[in-house]
Amino acid sequence: MDMATQRIEEPASGAPTRRRRIVRNTLLGIVAAVFAVWLILFITRGRFLKSPFQSIVGKLTDRTVTVRGDFQLYFAPLNIKFLAEGLTISNPAWATRPNLFAAKRIDTRIAPLSLIFGKRRLYWLDLADGAVDLEWNVAHTANTWTFSEKKGGKPLDFPRIDRATVVGTTVRYIDPRMQLLANLGVDTIRSTGARIGDTVGLRGDGRIRETPFTVTAQLLSPNETVARGANKLVAQMHAAHNVIDVTGTLPSIADIENVPLQTRARGRNMAELLGIIGVAIPQTRTYRMRAQLVKSGEVYRFTHMVGIAGATDLAGRLTITNGKRIHLDSVLATRTLDIIDAAPFIGYNPDIVAAKGAVAAAAATGAAPQRLMPDAQFPVATMQFFDADLKWTVRQVRSKNLPISNIDMTLDLERGRLALSPLTFAMARGNVASDLVFDTRPRPSAVTYDIRLAPTPMGRLLAGYGLAESGTTGTIKGRIQLAGRGDTIHDSLSTSKGRIAFIMPQGALWTRNVQLAELDVGTFVQKLFEDKLKKPVQVNCGLIGFTVRSGVAAADPILIDTSKNVIAGRGGFSFKTEAVDLAFRADGKKFSLFSGQSPVGIGGYFSAPALQVISPQLLGRAGAGLGLALLATPPAAVLAFVDIGDAKSAACGPVLAGATASAQRTTKGEPRDDVGHGTTSKAEDGKREPKRKKFLGIF
């Protein structure tokens, strides 16, 4: 029984022993095999793996991998030794250059476990004459350095490098959407004991759109770079008379995604700066700006923006989205806008305005002599290239004659249609609201102007031109509605049609110029000698209205009713030639012994208007008076200047409504016969008015 039991138990006790022997032998076999592989690789330096390496890596990356010279891949003794001479890795077929990477020689030691656990580490790297080609495709859906068929591209991922010698390395970068080409050279890098030195430099040049640029950069903490720590970067770019400085701390040598970067820009004209990326803005004078930049994919956000352009301060934020169409979204605030810095908004060069005046600035755009309106072309092609949204507020405008403040502008540019709507500002305790549209999609551009002036005190409005603010209670309100076609301000107004009307409700004006306008010469002379020039003129109501056709504005009507006179005007002005041909005549309501009763003429051009107080009619009266004095007695000469005072007071209803000349009435309801003659090409009923002397050679 014991013998049988013993025979049965022997196999059970011997089984673990046999399993241990199998495991041991297996492990010994694996170790022997690994050692044999290691030994073979060490002896042969792994040169026989050249073809498998090219094939396997090529299939994994879907690229062609070629080693034209020596190749080594082995354990030495535990780290992976990799050497390749004449190594190239091809680009995708759509790229403009054949290779993503090429090097005369690459020699490195790799930590084996880093390949398994993902945090790749190179103990040392010796790279000679490396060339890297980084490129996006036209659709911006793939790049050359991402080995994936998925849409988009990953950022560059550099391994940790403990020691390195890098000589003759160049980098080429292309982004078709930004129309950017950069060719960069990396200064020689030599590190020992994981210490690179004080700086690593980079320099190069390129083109962004049609603008050439140069760039220099330094990595001020390269030893942090190899340790994948904080990398202090300083870079400077020169382009189109602009200098741009960028500083920041990068998490890795090529990772700028979502990293705050401090940027500074300075130059002679901010329009040249944004013109680099194909964005059109009005010209500026010398500028300095600083902001914080954060890039997130296609979006570049500039925040905490502060600077100055000319004599105008700017603050706010700007977001540039580099999508299929460039889009700008900006919010700006200005404390003080210098009026000269506003000149580019209508096409003037601000430097010329500051040095030589508006006429010289207009001439610089190609305008005819003595013209004020510029012939600067709208940037039609550029306006159709990008879109923009802008909200801009200005607290006050620095101007000698125009009391403007509290500007609030909303700008919307979409596919070539630019709308400034609304554009509001305060002027002399009044408010101006406007909607301006420049649509460059039709050819030529379709432009509309709608400008509305709320009731505004005339004393403050015209104080810079000699009107006494103290004692002037008169106000003025008005509206300009015009529509024209053209690719310049001048052309759009030269073809415009519409109406201009300014209304003066009841009030008092206090200035000697108004007395001249009334042309009651006897009263004016009496007050001159009696030193009573500052007695207010009482205005019952007034209308300065023009009907605009084909760029020519004809008085329709000019009618001002005062306590003593009725002032009527004829003529008009031309946006085409900027010529002015206006005549004002005052008829007295009461008897006046000394009254010239002849028109005051305003001629010349917008840039140089001429006041003709002593008109031919007045000289004729003086001649008649002289003849009477010779033929009769001296008192008879006075009769030539007598006004019998038969002017008919105006009904203020049609005047305050801004009605046309045909709708004007006397206080008795009768049609007026002193307005509407020769002021428009046709009467309101469609019948031609009696033929009179042509105004501006047109009417």
Structure characterization notes:
The structure is a single chain. This protein has 699 residues and is of the alpha+beta class. The chain has three domains: 43-197, no CATH class; 260-475 and 484-495, no CATH class; 500-699, no CATH class. The chain is 20% helix and 41% strand. It contains 14 helices and 33 strands. The chain has a 33-stranded mixed β-sheet that branches. A hairpin with a 2-residue loop joins strand 16 and strand 17 (299-309). It is rod-shaped and about 140 Å long. The termini are far apart. Residues 223-228, 512-533, 637-644 and 678-699 have low confidence and may be disordered.
The assigned structural class equals: alpha+beta
How many structural domains are formed by the residues?
3
Counting DSSP H or I runs of 4 or more residues, the number of helices is 14
What radius of gyration results from the CA coordinates?
42 Å
Q: Report the major sheet.
A: 33 strands, mixed
Detail the poorly predicted runs. 223-228, 512-533, 637-644, 678-699
Q: If you average the pLDDT, what whole number results?
A: 77
Topology, pairings included?
Blueprint: H1 2-44, H2 50-61, E1 65-67, E2 71-75, E3 80-90, E4 99-110, H3 112-117, E5 121-128, E6 131-135, E7 160-167, E8 169-175, E9 180-186, E10 189-190, E11 200-208, E12 211-219, H4 222-226, E13 231-239, E14 242-250, E15 261-267, H5 270-275, E16 287-296, E17 299-309, E18 312-322, E19 326-338, H6 350-356, H7 358-364, H8 380-383, E20 386-398, E21 404-414, E22 417-427, E23 430-439, E24 446-457, H9 458-461, E25 475-485, H10 489-494, E26 497-504, E27 507-509, H11 512-518, H12 521-530, E28 537-549, E29 552-562, E30 565-574, E31 580-588, E32 600-605, E33 608-612, H13 616-631, H14 652-656
Parallel strand pairs: 5-7, 6-8, 19-20
Antiparallel strand pairs: 1-3, 2-3, 3-4, 4-5, 4-6, 7-10, 8-9, 9-11, 11-12, 12-13, 13-14, 14-15, 15-16, 16-17, 17-18, 18-19, 20-21, 21-22, 22-23, 23-24, 24-25, 25-26, 26-28, 27-28, 28-29, 29-30, 30-31, 31-32, 32-33
Helix pairs in contact: 6-7
